[in-house]
Design goal:
heterodimer; A: two-stranded antiparallel sheet; 2 strands; 0% strand; B: alpha+beta; two-stranded antiparallel ribbon; 7 helices; AP4_complex_esu (chain A); AP-4 complex subunit epsilon (chain A); golgi apparatus (chain A); ARM-like (chain A); transport (chain A)
Chain lengths: 949, 162
């Protein structure tokens, strides 16, 4: 076997690979591959190509596709090859087809027939090849075509075929659950197959089915427990051992299934306690696979109904994982800890230092896992430290996917556990600053809402403190380049709303800042819209409070620029801003009430406030309003016409279908206008528009209903000239100014010192100044201790604390504990295997062994062949390469000498050299080790017969 | 389930790509490139696991291991155990070693077909099929013998070389 006299491929293929290896650039490689594609196209399409060459061509085609080039022209040849009688060609064809085609490809239909035939073949290898293809190529439509044969194969005499048939059925149920729902009993039946391999295969579909619907399979709990018991007691044939663990993959699958079945089911869980406990005790924690089982057991324990004894064992195992030097085990330890703290939050405290080590580990995977853990254990006492850490990490990474995840987690934790609003705002600022474009837009709106609503209590001073600290922080931040759009929107809104609320900053200062923002982001219409509305608010507040207002030059140019904007929304806003200056203080006050974002706006649908106006108009000879329904119902077309004509006469240009009366218009009139009926010039819909940005920060990019509103206003601009009618003269503004010198109510709190901000900073410094892990640990974990009336966050105490908690736990729940004890079986004789394993390597430090885990296992298994073998292969190698230039090797392998190729052997050969000289010896050695290590048990062919009846 | 098995060399060249859910060729290349980028950025002596949810969706992870010049990568979801995947990879490599006597990168390049054959005996449709490298090697052997016997019309191997 092996390399079949070298590599078993033609010189052409060798040359191809050689030249690809030699190519110096991607372009050169592409040229070579394209040439190869042309050659293959010619050869494959040539009817005279000998059959035995076809396999090689197809393999070369696969290679070409793997390098990223189009090979679709050859798909049909692969399909043709599956039809061939010759096994080699057929199998190559199947391989190619499974790699080339997806299950919905048109060519599949040409293969189904062949698959059907091959499934019936006498040769089980042909059947296997067909089953491989079935798993990959059959889709929902073609399942019925092969289903009968596959089901029949479940009873095939060869276990390899039965196994694959189970897998194929599983695949069907994944792809189209409906198509095999009547066959699910087969999976149950296969649990009692004579061959443990087939039984193991049946676990895979059952796992999926149980995940989908647990309740249907509760009756299998006993069977699964029994099977697991038999496996753990080494009653399977020894061939199923892997690194001296009995059928570990089956154990893992079973543990996964048990944990699904045990979730929230006390009765089922109780049936499992004994076996899970047994497995945890028996696990060989010096081997990789042993730890895999141990980890799986912890996962199982964490999802079962809690059992104090098992939890204790799990906690011990986690401790071992976390203390290990292996990053893999630390990773699993953290993961297991994350699962276990759901049941017992105190466990994390015992491992606080280990957790912090992992948090500072250079390994990114481990770090992320640790952040998952922190995320799960966050509470109000430690949220500040955790979110701080998260943000720090978020800033340091580039992966936008993960950045988004962390940012949204920070927001979530902040919203849930924020100790104070100041903190929340500061945190959100940081999140927005560094990942603003990645977080949900809703978060920005939530933040604005929070600033507007404050604490939700009737504590006005606290609210205004919050706002002024927000304003201050934004004024500081906004100068920085490259702030994300969402964040700028928040800034503009907050500055507009509260920028001058506490009289600390002059209106022109804030307006100047807002103009700067608009100017710095010429391409971002949303930000510009927010900025203009912010400016409008500031001006309105100033006008309303009767102060003299003059339009800043930069603001003027901004307005002019926007009046010419392509965005109608921006135009609209610019016009609105312009018109503000034409109104008197009273009107402006109504339009833009100070600090009214949280007020509900009710609309008077009956328009009762217009009654007087209407009355007056009718008295002056206007036609009375006829509701739309009546108009059509009475079908007084002439009436309608005349009504329309009357309207039309007002304008020069008029098209018939242009302006049907809009019944929706009146909805937008807010009650605020009730007292201002004398201010006719401002169109009701227009007022609603102006008010709108104030009431809903989502302004321009908000829902469709709001969009509609705005469009109404825009139409008006084209329609009637009412839009910017200059009714109250500017003199009236002056007049009002004199009258309204009273300060706004909101500014009362303006002189408050900025306490919250500084306190935040000092807290932050405190955290940063104390780098010792102990402190960090205390802040991370101490919180829980505090909240639960404990005071021992430090490591020294954790041990005793652990102890007390243990005792308290066991005293709390003595009943299940004893139950477990009594239900434990007498020590199994077969268990003796374990101590003997340990004794076979007594002098080896278990942790040393860990480090060289794989190397160690290599040495005890016959897998690695001796150095002699290697040497012979070397000579093989040289002879093979004799006709190739040396440079070919240099490019495939860094070392030019043929001997150097040994350096690139996949298995490090250094280990093998100082080991037994030949394969046979190694085999014998291994057999001996296994003999010593494992008490062999007789084969038990009808192992699971008794389980299901 | 196991989503895919990939072997890449230390230059980023794919040596084996096998996805158990179909991925179009372009996407395959893209995935291989992104995986290679991630693997390159990993320091030595860190864990063998990498979260791959940005490439493959939630809860998908990958386990990788370097053997000489090659990265072996297994991609799988939460229904598999990470450590067990490392062992499965070990089974795969052990089997390759058995079938090629001390396998090296060139073996994998040239015997592409056989590598696939071995992998198909270990993983089928994304599920673990067989975990004993001995069994796998035997099965592969049986198939190879049969293929050879059934192919009297194919000239013996030396003839192939031209």
């Amino acid at each position: 076997m092996g390399s079949q006299g070298g590599f078993g491929q033609s010189k052409e293929f060798l040359d191809l690979i050689k030249s690809i290896g030699e190519s110096r650039s991607k372009a050169e490689e592409d040229r070579i591959v394209l040439r190869e594609v042309e050659t293959l196209k010619l050869r494959l399409n040539d009817p005279n190509t000998p059959k035995y060459k076809l396999k090689e061509y197809i393999i070369r085609l696969l290679y070409v596709e793997m390098l990223g080039h189009d090979a679709s022209f050859g798909y049909i040849h692969a399909v043709k090859m599956t039809h061939d009688e010759n096994l080699l060609l057929k199998r190559s064809g199947y391989l190619a087809v499974t790699l080339f085609l997806n299950e919905d490809h048109d060519l599949i239909i040409l293969i189904v027939n062949t698959i059907q035939k091959d499934l019936k073949s006498d040769n089980y290898l042909v059947v296997c090849a067909a089953l491989n293809a079935v798993c990959r190529l059959i889709n929902e439509e073609t399942i019925p075509a092969v289903l009968p044969q596959v089901v029949e194969l479940l009873g095939h005499q060869k276990e390899a075929v039965r196994k694959k048939a189970v897998m194929a059925l599983h695949r069907f149920s994944q792809k189209a659950p409906g198509s095999v729902s009547h066959l699910i009993s087969n999976f149950r039946k296969k649990l009692c197959d004579n061959d443990p391999g087939v039984m193991g295969a049946a676990l895979c579909p059952l796992f999926d089915l149980i995940t989908a619907d647990v309740d249907k399979y509760k009756d299998l709990v006993v069977s699964f427990v029994n099977i697991l018991k038999q496996v753990a007691e080494r009653r399977l044939p020894k061939t199923y051992d892997y690194h001296q663990m009995p059928a570990p993959f089956i154990q893992i699958k079973l543990l996964k299934i048990l944990s699904l079945l045990g979730i929230g089911d006390k009765k089922a869980s109780e049936q499992m306690y004994t076996i899970v406990g047994d497995i945890m005790r028996k696990c060989d924690s010096t081997s990789n696979i042993g730890n895999a089982i141990l980890y799986e057991s912890i996962c199982c324990v964490s999802s079962l109904h809690p059992n104090p004894k098992l939890l204790e064992a799990a906690a011990d195992a986690i401790a071992k994982f976390l203390k290990s030097d292996s990053h893999n085990l630390k990773y699993l330890g953290i993961d297991a800890l994350t699962r276990l703290i759901k049941i017992n939050p105190e466990i994390a405290e015992q491992h606080q230092l280990a957790v912090i080590d992992c948090l500072e580990d250079p390994d990114d995977t481990l770090k992320r896992k640790t952040f998952d853990l922190l995320y799960k254990m966050t509470k109000s006492s430690n949220v500040e430290v955790i979110v701080d850490r998260m943000i720090e990490y978020m800033i340091s990474i580039n992966d936008s996917h993960y950045k988004t995840e962390i940012a949204s987690r920070c927001v979530e934790l902040g919203e849930q556990f924020a100790p104070s609003n100041q903190w929340f705002i500061q945190t959100m600022n940081k999140v927005f600053e560094h990942a603003g474009d990645l977080v949900n837009a809703k978060v920005a709106h939530n933040l604005m809402k929070l600033i507007a609503e404050g604490f939700g209590e009737d504590d006005d001073t606290a609210d205004s403190q919050l706002r002024s600290s927000a304003v201050e922080s934004y004024l500081r931040i906004m100068g920085e380049p490259k702030l994300p759009s969402a964040f700028l929107q928040v800034i503009c809104w907050v500055l507009g709303e509260y920028g001058i609320a506490d009289d600390k900053y002059s209106s022109s200062y804030i307006i100047g800042k807002l103009c700067d923002v608009a100017e710095a982001h010429p391409d971002d219409d949303t930000v510009k819209a927010y900025a203009v509305t912010g400016i409008m608010k500031i001006y309105s507040f100033e006008i309303a409070s009767g102060k003299p207002v003059d339009l800043l030059p930069e603001c003027q140019s901004l307005i002019e620029e926007m009046l010419a904007s392509h965005s109608t929304d921006l135009q609209q806003r610019a016009y609105e801003l312009q018109s503000i200056f034409t109104l008197d203080a009273q009107a402006v006050k109504k339009i833009m009430p100070v600090d009214s974002t949280c007020d509900d706006i009710e609309s008077d649908k009956n328009l009762s406030f217009l009654d007087g106006y209407v009355q007056q108009a009718i008295e002056n000879g206007a036609q009375p309003y006829i509701p739309e329904s009546e108009r059509f119902g009475i079908s007084s077309i002439s009436d309608f016409k005349s009504h329309e004509e009357h309207e039309t006469s007002a304008h020069a240009l008029r098209f018939e279908a242009y302006e049907l009366p809009k019944p929706s218009l009146p909805h937008n009139i807010p009650p605020v206008l009730a007292s201002s009926t004398e201010l006719v010039p401002v169109e009701p819909s227009y007022v609603a528009d102006i008010l709108h940005p104030t009431s809903a920060p989502s302004a321009s990019d908000a829902g469709s209903s709001e969009l509609k509103l705005r469009l109404d206003g825009v139409q008006k601009k084209w329609g009637r000239p009412t839009y910017s009618s200059p009714a109250p003269s500017s003199s009236s503004i002056d007049q009002v100014k004199v009258q309204n010198e009273t300060p706004r109510p909101d500014s009362a709190s303006s002189s408050k010192p900025k306490i919250p901000d500084t306190s935040y900073i000092s807290r932050k410094q405190q955290i940063e100044i104390s780098p010792e892990k102990q402190k960090l640990a205390a802040s991370l974990f101490g919180g829980s201790a505090k909240s639960e009336g404990r005071h021992l966050p430090s490591q020294k105490n954790s041990k005793t604390q652990n102890h007390t908690s243990d005792t308290s736990r066991s005293s709390k729940a003595p009943a299940p504990d004893t139950a477990v004890k009594t239900s434990q079986p007498p020590p199994d004789l077969l268990d003796m295997g374990e101590p003997s394993i340990a004794s076979s390597t007594p002098s080896v430090d278990p942790f040393k062994q860990f480090e060289g885990l794989f190397d160690f296992t290599q040495e005890t298994t016959p897998v690695s062949t001796g150095g002699v073998d290697g040497a012979t292969k070397d000579s093989d190698f040289t002879s093979l390469f004799a006709d190739m230039s040396l440079s070919a090797q240099t490019h495939i392998d860094p070392n030019p000498e043929p001997n150097g190729l040994r350096g690139s052997k996949v298995e490090p050969s250094a280990h093998q050299l100082n080991k037994g000289p030949n394969l046979k010896e190694a085999l014998e050695k291994d057999a001996l080790v296994r003999h010593v290590g494992v008490t062999p048990s007789g084969q038990n062919p009808i192992l699971f017969k008794d389980l299901l009846g | 389930m196991i989503r895919g098995v990939i072997i890449i060399n230390d230059q980023g060249k794919p040596r084996l790509i096998k996805f158990y859910e179909f991925q179009p060729p372009d996407k395959q290349q893209e995935l291989v490139r992104s995986i290679y980028r991630v693997l390159c950025s990993r320091a030595e002596n860190v864990s063998n696991f990498v979260k791959a949810d940005s490439l493959f969706g939630p809860d998908v992870r990958l386990v990788y291991k370097t053997f000489a010049t090659l990265y072996f990568v297994f991609i799988f979801d939460k229904s598999e155990n990470e450590l067990a995947m490392i062992d499965l990879m070990q089974v795969f490599v052990e089997t390759l070693n058995k079938c090629f006597r001390e396998v090296c990168e060139l073996d994998i390049v040239f015997n592409f077909y056989k590598v696939h054959m071995i992998l198909d005996e270990i993983i089928l449709g994304g599920q673990v099929l067989e975990t004993s490298s001995e069994e796998v090697a035997n099965a592969v052997d049986a198939i190879s013998r049969l293929e050879k016997n059934a192919n009297s019309m194919i000239p013996s191997i030396p003839g192939w070389q031209r």
